[in-house]
Specification:
Layout lengths: L3 E7 L7 H5 L1 E7 L13 H56 L16
Antiparallel strand pairs: 1-2
Length: about 120
């Protein structure tokens, strides 16, 4: 493999013969890569074009974040409105249930009428 340096290490077992001790097994160890970037250097025009593209991308991403933030705020406002509407509906149902008797007591002062 290109870029791989081969170093030989001996693996010895206790009580092995001299011939076995001197046998080496090749082990592939990656060579250190150079720190500097390979390839040609970019020209000033290329760097400016790359910078412009990155600035444009950054502007587009900022606009996307702002639109998502506005959408989120609208959803939060709708959620708050729905929660308050739900609470008022539950409150009115509780008030109706409290006003309505659980069972009907007949008025004993009125004459009995068959319906």
């Amino acid at each position: 493999m290109p870029g791989w340096g081969y170093r030989h290490f001996s693996y010895r077992a206790v009580g092995s013969s001299v011939a076995e001790r001197s046998a080496s097994v090749p082990v592939a160890i990656p060579a250190l890569k150079p720190i500097r970037r390979q390839g040609k250097k970019k020209t000033t025009a290329e760097l400016r074009a790359q910078e412009r593209a990155l600035v444009d991308e950054n502007t587009m991403l900022e606009k996307m974040v702002e639109s998502k933030r506005k959408e989120m705020e609208a959803l939060i406002a709708e959620n708050v409105r729905l929660k308050s509407e739900k609470a008022s509906l539950q409150h009115s149902r509780v008030a109706e249930a409290a006003a309505r008797p659980l069972f009907l007591l007949p008025d004993l002062n009125e004459p009995l009428t068959e319906a």
